[in-house]
Amino acid sequence: MSRYMTRLPARFILMMALLLCMTPFAAHAQEHSPQGHVVSGFADLAERLLPSVVNISSTQKPIEIKDFPELPQFPPGSPFEDFFEQFMDRRGLGMPAIPPASLGSGFVIDAENGYIITNHHVVKDANEVRVTFHDDTTLQAEVMGRDEKTDIAILKVETDRTLTAVSFGDSDRLRVGDWILAIGNPFGLGGTVTAGIVSAQQRDIQAGPYDDFIQTDASINRGNSGGPMFNLDGEVIGINTAIFSPSGGSVGIGFAIPSNLARPVIHQLIEFGRTRRGWLGVRIQSVTEEIAESLGLEEARGALVASTTPTGPAEVAGLEAGDIILDFNGRAVRTMRDLPRMVAETPIDQDAQVTYWRNGERRTTSVSVGELEKAEEEGLLAATERRPEEKQENGTDIESLGLSLRPISEQDREQFNIGVDVEGLIISQIIPNSEAAQKSLAVGDVIVEVNQQAVTDADEAKTIIENARAAGRNSVLLLVNRDSDVRFVALRLR
């Protein structure tokens, strides 16, 4: 060591050593795409992708406000009379018709055919749709098809200009923490690029039956709807659709439709102009730990069949209420939400192998998949409304569950709209804060089965429950009928 180094303060030497150690890491402060490509910032990626993203404006049918309050009468020649005649129709037609407008985003997926993807709610009820490209060129667009369930719509433009298209990536490869880029038209400002990470996956925000959203902290605001979410390879891995915001602006919680969910819907809209989803003909519910334990299933997984549609695919294949669907066409059904998507993506009339749990054993059957849209047209999926709790009456107390049961009377059938073909025991009382109350059971619900045994006598039902407790069971499984909608409810024994 030189004599000059020996004169330097010790803390200075230590600082220099730390800086030398840190230099190699600073030189490699770069991000990597999922495929391992090095990305230095987002500028090159944004420059390449911006031309593929469009702004979408749509106008709807004019809204006329009729029955407007009678206007005051002004003296002839009054300036107020001229003013109101200009802005209001004094001949009984009400306020002037103002066509509402909607702003959103979209992106080109097929340059040759001019196909553009956006959200259904951006072009819903639109009379006219206009698409503005990155170079400010504006074209009229035709709505080729849309799907309200997944909030996807496909547009088509006719042009001689060269369009820039992007391709879809594999959203199943995403991991929480991966970088993403969002491009859209927030508040009608024009093409805007924001970046963030994947905050969570498989979010259910109660937007539709196939909720499986990607959550991100990238800044997404009103007007971003329908815009693309890109991975660092420039592939679309999501369609920005919704935000959570008490204020109306971005708070770092945005949601996108995964590309793997959107792709089959888009293909169907292009081919048929509408969706053609598979249909099984079952009402399903989640398998809780209590339900799994009561049915002898080691793990709480799968989709519990609450009821089957008469003559529907599932009933024809032999599936029954109380079966737990574990696998569909070779794919494991981990949660109830997995099954609707698996079935929807299955081609119509295809035979699907279904593995299910019944009476303590695994069984397999083949189901010929039907068409969901056809079932809807035929009224096979009519929803039932939830009925509020009615007046309570006495019955046989089941203290371990926190409810009372009694046979169904004719008055009950009329009061609670119970069909003549429904047999069981009616709930006449619910103890507040009991297990039954916490599981949302209500007076007027009909208990059809207890532990998969049909019951019409309250004492018999009580005996089944007591026998389950004596056998060391921690819960009992009830089959409940409410307004002709049946479901299973597992109640813990106390």
| Residues in β-strands, percent | 25-35%
How many strands, which pairing sense, and closed or not: the largest β-sheet?
Answer: 7 strands, antiparallel
Helical content stands at 10-25%
Instruction: Give the CA-CA distance, first to last residue.
Output: 79 Å
Ranges where pLDDT stays below 50 over 5 or more residues in a row are 1-6, 12-29, 65-69, 89-96, 382-392
The first-level CATH class name of the domain at 171-272: Mainly Beta
> What is the structural class?
alpha+beta
Query: How many beta-strand elements?
Result: 29
CATH superfamily of the domain at 171-272: Trypsin-like serine proteases
Would you give an account of this structure?
- Among the domains are: 171-272, Thrombin, subunit H (Beta Barrel); 283-377, Pdz3 Domain; 396-492, Roll (Pdz3 Domain).
- The chain has 494 residues and is an alpha+beta fold.
In brief:
This protein has 494 residues and is of the alpha+beta class. Among the domains are: 171-272, Thrombin, subunit H (Beta Barrel); 283-377, Pdz3 Domain, CATH 2.30.42; 396-492, Pdz3 Domain.
